[in-house]
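hiii so um. not sure if this is the right channel but i have a protein structure encoded as tokens and i wanna go backwards to a sequence. like what aa goes where. can anyone help
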């Protein structure tokens, strides 16, 4: 009898796992059900579903292969289209989405020729019920039984931050989901005052697109620290060393404050801080695993923004565009937090801010866009499938709100703390376990390990 596996989620993480599974040589044909949801085209997800040429990868082309066996697969694909592409280039995410879709379609076609059964199911799963022998999957009134299932649903739907008047959201001038808004944004010469809540990579994408579509718009961006992400160097540079000494120091003293001090000292010994941060990347998951829970919480409270700003950087050409907007007076950055947003009778928004310098500020905006990054809090999220799984005790939330609780085999933990041998998770849902788990180099490593586990 063939083994039956279900992959739930139609984004890049699901595509990577599907590709790894179908590449395996198995003694019996594999039966694979891929529930891609409403993703169209599938295999792209939010990150690679964009059509904007301004939205670039923040990892160089040479490191963006879909599978562990072909880490330079994307570079080969891009060079077949344009021979001038170099491995150090930051290419459009749209192009990467084309590559992922092409690769997974080829993997499916090849697998079917070898006798595997691959079902693409373009609907959302309503419920998942694991037990001691397998997993039941429900879609409407229909159900199917599989040996193992993997949750690859990505980040959760964004939720309004506290203090936002529901009337402002209903009116449409407070945007909770920036990606849906960008997909329908139209060109306009109308003067507008736009406020962005958050200054990470999502905010940068929104800023560049709307600034191009609306040449007479002015933008205010506010965050706790008031900084946009750091910038990659123009030329790629390998870490000066393996980082082994720094990693050993961090392991000897597993505390957030000590870690930040060790990193500062290592950075101070060189001319460029970025190779130090990059040298930690292969070790980040292991270091996070060794960090006590109370220290993880302390890191999230005090150092998360600094780490993510340094770790998830902008391509140089993107940074140049942001700098130009600020230099030309179209972008103003502020340090502070949002207190309230209320709808005015004229349809504009009153935005009440608390600024870091102690002052309180009231601004009037035509549009406010929430760009605060990933939502991974499954306990308070609105994802129907994860809500069902949590309510029925089949999974439990990570205690820090970073996704699902799981063990090192990626098996999810139920409400009693038991590890499932039939239901697994990968990608963004594993931030609590791995922390570094959203970029393609880490995703493809997870997919390789999990594919071996699923068919063993």
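sure thing!! here u go:
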């Amino acid at each position: 009898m063939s083994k039956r596996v279900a992959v739930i989620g139609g984004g890049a993480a699901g595509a990577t796992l599907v590709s790894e599974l179908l590449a395996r040589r198995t003694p019996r044909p594999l039966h694979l059900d891929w529930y891609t949801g409403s993703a169209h085209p599938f295999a792209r997800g939010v990150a690679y579903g964009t059509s904007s040429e301004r939205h670039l990868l923040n990892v160089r082309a040479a490191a963006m292969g879909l599978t562990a066996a072909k880490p330079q697969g994307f570079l080969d694909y891009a060079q077949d289209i344009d021979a001038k592409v170099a491995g150090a280039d930051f290419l459009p995410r749209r192009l990467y989405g084309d590559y992922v879709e092409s690769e997974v379609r080829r993997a499916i076609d090849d697998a079917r020729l070898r006798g595997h059964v691959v079902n693409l199911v373009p609907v959302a799963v309503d419920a998942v019920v694991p037990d001691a022998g397998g997993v039941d999957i429900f879609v409407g009134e229909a159900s199917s039984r599989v040996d193992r299932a993997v949750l690859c649903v990505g980040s959760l739907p964004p939720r309004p931050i506290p203090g936002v008047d529901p009337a402002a959201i209903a009116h449409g001038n407070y945007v909770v989901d920036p990606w849906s808004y960008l997909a329908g944004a139209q060109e306009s010469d109308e003067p507008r005052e736009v406020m962005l809540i958050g200054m990470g990579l999502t905010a940068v994408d929104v800023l560049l697109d709307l600034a191009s579509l609306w040449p007479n718009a002015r933008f205010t961006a506010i965050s706790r620290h008031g900084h946009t992400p750091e910038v990659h160097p123009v030329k790629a540079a390998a870490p000066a060393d393996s980082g082994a000494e720094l990693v050993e120091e961090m392991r000897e003293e597993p505390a957030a404050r000590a870690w930040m001090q060790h990193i500062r000292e290592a950075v101070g010994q060189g001319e460029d801080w970025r190779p130090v941060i990059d040298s930690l990347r292969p070790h980040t998951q292991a270091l996070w695993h060794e960090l006590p829970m109370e220290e993880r919480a302390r890191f999230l409270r005090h150092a998360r923004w600094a780490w993510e700003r340094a770790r998830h950087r902008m391509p140089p050409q993107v940074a140049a565009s942001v700098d130009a907007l600020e230099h030309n007076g179209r972008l103003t950055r502020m340090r502070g937090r949002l207190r309230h947003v209320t709808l005015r009778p004229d349809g504009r928004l009153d935005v009440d801010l608390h600024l870091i310098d102690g002052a309180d500020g009231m601004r009037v905006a035509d549009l406010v866009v929430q760009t605060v990054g990933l939502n991974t809090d499954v306990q308070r999220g609105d994802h129907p499938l994860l809500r069902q799984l949590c309510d029925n005790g089949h999974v439990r939330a990570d205690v820090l709100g970073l996704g699902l609780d799981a063990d090192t085999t990626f098996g999810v933990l139920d409400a009693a703390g038991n590890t499932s041998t039939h239901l697994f998770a990968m990608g963004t849902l594993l931030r609590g376990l791995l922390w570094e788990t959203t970029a393609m180099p880490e995703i493809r490593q997870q997919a390789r390990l999990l594919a071996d586990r699923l068919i063993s």
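oh and The first strand starts at residue 3 and ends at 8.
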